[in-house]
Design goal:
5% of the residues lie in helices and 54% in strands. By secondary structure, it is mostly beta strands. The protein has a single domain, classed as monomeric porin ompg (Porin, Beta Barrel). The radius of gyration is 17 Å and the shape is globular.
Length: 274
């Protein structure tokens, strides 16, 4: 496996659980975490690495999917299609199911690792923390050695969302522990993000983020990554939001990348009991 792709695969859980990203639609501020106010309004957790503290309304389903093209080196690229199914379990609890298809440089496309997580919003509008949620998750080695890490990962993400006028801010810190001896992926990894977004004009909005992946140790360890992500969003309908943009590395082995995707609030799939 290409060394830089191995690094990317080792972090695909942190990026997938967190990179479906994090700005809500320009028409719906991040502070509006109570989705019961408009349960059919999309709450995108993409395109940024960060995620927001909002949760899908109980009984409702929202789907996010997209494609990312990473320029591993001048002569090779990797493609991935991170997808998440978000299901509201309770007024402050959301089940998230993650999957992806990965095409490594010079290889064939195949299923990547899958994960499951539960986002639990603990408080709203708290001093300093704002809307605060936790997202524990587990990744399973469903992918091959070329498209995944061959490890089972346990992760915890802490999420703090704030609203400053029209600008939403989402701050995340996360930790991932993996089984194995560290030969395929580091046994532990961390993540931090600071994401911002808001309306531009009409249905157009914007997102911008700085994120970091601190250095890891062991046989598959790598130097730290800091990168910028930015791009426009388009609210086609309140329940349908499009995004596109670029990822630019500042330090470390993060490749240059292009991405595009969609968030679709499907609607209610069952009626919760009172």
């Amino acid at each position: 496996m290409h060394p830089r792709l191995a690094r990317a695969a080792a972090l695909i859980f942190a990026i997938s659980v967190a990179r479906a990203g994090a700005q809500e639609s320009p028409a719906k501020p991040a502070a509006a975490a109570d989705s019961s106010k408009d349960p059919h309004a999309a709450q995108p957790e993409r395109p940024t690495v960060a995620t927001h503290a909002g949760t899908v309304a109980p009984g409702w389903l929202e789907i996010e999917t997209g494609a990312e093209r990473d320029q591993i080196d001048p002569n090779s690229t990797a493609l991935s299609t991170p997808t998440v199914f978000k299901i509201g379990l309770a007024p402050r609890v959301q089940l998230s199911l993650y999957g992806t298809v990965v095409r490594p440089p010079g290889g064939s496309a195949g299923l990547g690792d899958a994960a499951v997580g539960v986002k639990w919003r603990l408080v709203d509008d708290a001093p300093l923390l704002g809307d605060f949620a936790v997202l524990p998750a587990i990744k399973f080695p469903t992918g091959s050695a070329e498209t995944g890490t061959t490890t089972t990962d346990a992760s915890l993400l802490l999420i703090s969302s704030h609203q400053f006028g029209d600008v939403a801010m989402d701050l995340n810190v996360g930790y991932t522990h993996r089984n194995g001896n560290g030969s395929n992926a580091p046994t532990s990894a961390t993540l931090w993000t600071a994401s911002f977004g808001g309306p531009f004009t009409g249905p157009l909005g914007w997102v911008a983020e700085c994120y970091g992946l601190p250095a890891t140790s062991g046989p598959s360890g790598a130097s730290s990554i800091v990168a910028l992500l930015a791009g426009p969003t388009v609210t086609v309908r309140s329940w349908l939001v499009l995004d596109a943009g670029v990822i630019i590395p500042l330090t470390g082995p993060q490749p240059h990348a292009l991405y595009a995707g969609v968030t679709y609030n499907v609607g209610r799939i069952w009626t919760p009991r009172s």
